[in-house]
Fold this protein.
Amino acid sequence: MRRRSLLATGLVAAAGAAPFRPARAEEEPVDVALVLAVDVSRSVDEDEARLQREGYREAITDPRVVEAIRSGMIGAIGLAYVEWAGMDFQRLLIPWTRISGQEEANGWAEALARAPRISLSWTSISGGIEFARRTLAETPFEAMRRVIDVSGDGVNNSGPPAEEARDRAVAEGITINGLPIMNDRPTFGRVSALPLDQYYERSVIGGPGAFMISAEDFTAFGNAVRRKLVREIAGLERTPDLA
């Protein structure tokens, strides 16, 4: 039941989107199964949410990212897009999709452009990681690596500490990378004594090869996503310098 309900959530959300190749029932090989876990709490306003989605759409379709996908041992990735806010809100917006070239990347980006946006209160990084971990457990792909990519503009202020969810995922061999958005707007609830990038490094990322790339603000988000995706997909030790 869990598998059916989780995948159905994303299929409903992406209804009406441009066609792209969804995951097939049998396991297909991919270089990495990647969950993009995106903060949609109310600290992210409409303009910032637009920049955030555009950043992911442009990054996935960027020829340099597509080349990184094609250059892998298998030449394909499995991609799922999750949105999260407080502890009681997570959803699989775009279900598992196998991407191996430009056409599939373009279709995925069009699906994201058409998907409805919902924003709720509070920021539960722990809830987002837990949901992403369950999403990875239900991937229809045989992945050489499993990665959760967490992006957000605030610290965990809802649900259990982020460290607890991180440690459970890492114990299963999952890598969690971080993309903190250094927004100057104050967040609601618990305030961290650390700058957000330091909080992510200490409390969010973990696992084999884990790393973090921060964006100075939402306008810088797109370039940070591109650099991060190339490094995640290619399994690089250092972040590429992409203009």
Observations:
- Residues 2-234 form a domain with the Rossmann fold fold (CATH 3.40.50.410).
